[in-house]
Amino acid sequence: IGRIRRVTRYANGSIAPNLGMAVSTPKGYNWLWEVFVKRKTDMHHLEKTSSKENIHLPPDFVPSLESQYSGVFYEQEVLGEFRAHEGLVYSKFDRDIHVRKPSEFSHRHKYFMGSIDWGYANPMVGLLYSVDGDGRMAQIDEIYQRRLTLQEFAEKLRLMEQEAAKALGVQYPFDVTYWCDPSDTSIGAGGMMTALRDMGFDIRKADNAIIPGINCIQKRLEMQPDGLPRLIVTPACANTISEFEQYSYDEYDPEKPFKDKPLKMNDHAMDAMRYAAMSLETGDRIVSFEPGGIFL
Fold it and tell me: Which of 19, 184, 196, 214 might form a disulfide with 201, Cβ 3.0–4.6 angstroms?
């Protein structure tokens, strides 16, 4: 990413807006696609090119890629096309179906729940859900940020809760349980979960079973007879949406043992989502619909 320093003046003497430039390889339907394709304006220009057109590459570079890559990965890495990844874990995810505005489900809201995936060099993730009377989950908002102290993260959790209350038209404060990565990166004898409890949060250890958790999310993505899936997210959850479209299994290689667990990439929000979904699946916690009431 760079900034173009040249000043351009129009014939009437006015100065053109500052210009910037970015060069990248597409990575699924990420922010580049969002800005330069889906929400493109007169202020954005996308110049697509492929590695085959790069005259500065060594003669054997592209042929070496063509011998290693295939399918949509080849189209992405060599041809520079925006593509959904091969081997996606959640191939059923569809923006047109699963991304909804809060106004579309605010009337169904019964209670809140949340989930947390620890991080520092990797993103610290906090997700907040509205759950209806049938156990449907609507992800209202997300925190997805690196290098947060626990105090900073706690402040962002409270702010996220306040914004969710406004979006759904409910009273704040409200009761909410956060299901957390049980590995709990320690910051002392008590760890992060204890520290957040001391700050007034209701914090519980999540079920971190990967395969059952993935199966649980898969079922929730399926369309139900009433025309709604059992899991939706709002447009505010940009990082969660991006991970849905990149979270994948390793490419199949007949020379290697098959691994049924996804790659440890683009998985921070996906892990946190599993924690929340599994808490509903196992029925570990029942939250009363009465103000101030949370019962185990």
Answer: 196
CA distance 284 to 278: 9
- Do 75 and 94 contact (CB within 8 A), yes or no? no
Q: How far is CA 272 from CA 1, 7, 123, 158, in A?
A: 31, 46, 11, 18
**Structure token digits, residue 47:** 């110049």
Dist CA 273 CA 217 (whole Å): 8
What does the pLDDT read at residue 289? 37
Residue 256 · residue 195 · CB < 8 Å: no
* Separation of alpha carbons 132 and 124, rounded Å: 27
C-alpha 263: how far from its chain's center? 15
**Which residue type occupies 40?**
K
Q: What's the CA gap between 280 and 113, in Å, rounded?
A: 10
Max intra-chain CA distance, the chain: 71
Beta strands in the chain (DSSP E): 2-4, 19-21, 109-117, 124-132, 137-145, 176-180, 202-205, 231-233
d(CA 279, CA 204): 10
